């Protein structure tokens, strides 16, 4: 009977794991793998805790509570706990128990234990780690010019990975701004104003790199999924990981964010050691920056800049 529950869970995954949790769309292979792995881990942990569920569809409220208690006791991060509950919540909809998994704060006496802290405490920018992004990009260009161009787009325009891969520089050139509408989160297009000659020169360079006016920064011989996979393979090979150089490619978005904040306010961001600043000046800069980065919430700026320091 040891493997009976695994077979039943695998059956549920085969039937539903390709579906998005909320929208009518198909998820990526990476999402399917991560969600499946997390769900298997959850049921393994339940057995270790003494709950020998032979049928995973029999999961109940006490099982979810036991898991959260276990995760909190092991001092897992709020983000990790939230992600695991999210996967369990999706699983519950698959087995016709849509209200089974509640909010994380409903399972704990101390909400801080499961509340994500969005304010950055450490700066993830490359230059803070004494890494010159442009030198790394030049070196990377020798082995994969496509990925090098994508990193350059992230650095200069604050693009996400998928946005950089799908960027069509000729189409995106709106004169004084960059139109970002391919690969955006939630399908929300945005405009990134070109603030300096460096950005203008980069856009001209990227336009010269594509084979056609409708071409993207991806290798045209690859599908989108292959291009995304290739991107992360190159990142690992180049040591652009927390275990390698101590930075990730997402740090280029943070690099962009902190540069723009400095340009808008005249001082470094709080996470980079900047001084207290007038509240209105700080808020206006954050609002413009969040819009540039393609986020819907004003508060997300703290994840890039740190908490606001207000002048007395």
Describe this structure in words.
The chain has helices spanning 4-16, 29-48, 61-73, 78-94, 133-141, 145-157, 161-166, 169-172, 197-209, 224-237, 251-265, 279-293, 302-305; strands at 177-180, 190-193. With 312 residues, it is mostly helical. It folds into three domains: 4-114; 129-250; 253-305, no CATH class. A two-stranded antiparallel sheet has the order 1-2. Helix 6 (145-157) packs antiparallel against helix 9 (197-209), helix 6 runs parallel beside helix 11 and helix 11 (251-265) runs antiparallel to helix 12. The longest helix has 20 residues, at 29-48.
Low-pLDDT regions:
none
Shape: globular
Strands across the major sheet, in which order?
A: 1-2
Rg value: 22 Å
Q: Roughly how many Å apart are the termini?
A: 67 Å
Largest sheet: 2 strands, antiparallel
Percentage of residues in DSSP E strands:
under 5%
Secondary-structure element order, N to C: HHHHHHHHEEHHHHH
Number of domains: 3
Number of strands: 2
Look at the helices and sheets and give the structural class.
mainly alpha
Share of helix among residues?
A: 40-55%
Summed up, the helix count is 13
Q: Tell me, rounded to a whole number, the average pLDDT.
A: 89
């Amino acid at each position: 009977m040891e493997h009976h529950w695994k077979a039943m869970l695998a059956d549920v995954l085969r039937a539903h794991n390709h579906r998005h949790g909320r929208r009518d769309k198909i998820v990526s292979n990476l999402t399917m793998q991560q969600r499946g792995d997390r769900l298997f881990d959850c049921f393994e942990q339940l057995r270790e805790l003494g709950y020998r569920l032979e049928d995973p569809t029999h999961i109940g409220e006490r099982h979810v509570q036991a898991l959260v208690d276990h995760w909190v006791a092991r001092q897992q991060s709020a983000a990790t706990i939230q992600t695991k509950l999210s996967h369990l919540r999706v699983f519950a909809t698959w087995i016709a128990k849509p209200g089974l998994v509640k909010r994380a704060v409903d399972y704990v006496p101390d909400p801080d234990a499961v509340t994500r802290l969005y304010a950055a405490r450490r700066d993830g920018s490359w230059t803070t780690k004494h890494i010159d992004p442009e030198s790394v990009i030049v070196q990377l260009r020798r082995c994969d010019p496509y990925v090098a161009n994508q990193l350059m787009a992230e650095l200069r325009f604050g693009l996400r990975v998928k946005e950089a891969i799908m960027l069509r520089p000729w189409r995106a050139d709106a004169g004084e701004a960059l139109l970002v509408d391919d690969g955006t989160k939630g399908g929300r297009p945005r405009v990134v104003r070109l603030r300096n000659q460096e950005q203008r020169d980069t856009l001209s360079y990227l336009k010269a790199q594509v084979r056609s006016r409708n071409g993207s920064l991806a290798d045209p011989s690859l599908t989108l999924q292959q291009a995304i996979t290739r991107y992360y393979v190159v990142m690992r090979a180049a040591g652009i990981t927390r275990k390698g150089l101590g930075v990730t490619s997402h740090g280029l978005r943070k690099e962009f964010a902190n540069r723009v904040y400095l340009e808008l306010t005249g001082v470094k961001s709080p996470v980079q050691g900047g001084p207290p600043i007038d509240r209105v000046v700080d808020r206006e800069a954050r609002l413009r920056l969040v819009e540039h980065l393609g986020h819907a919430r004003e508060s997300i700026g703290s994840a890039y800049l740190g908490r606001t320091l207000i002048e007395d």
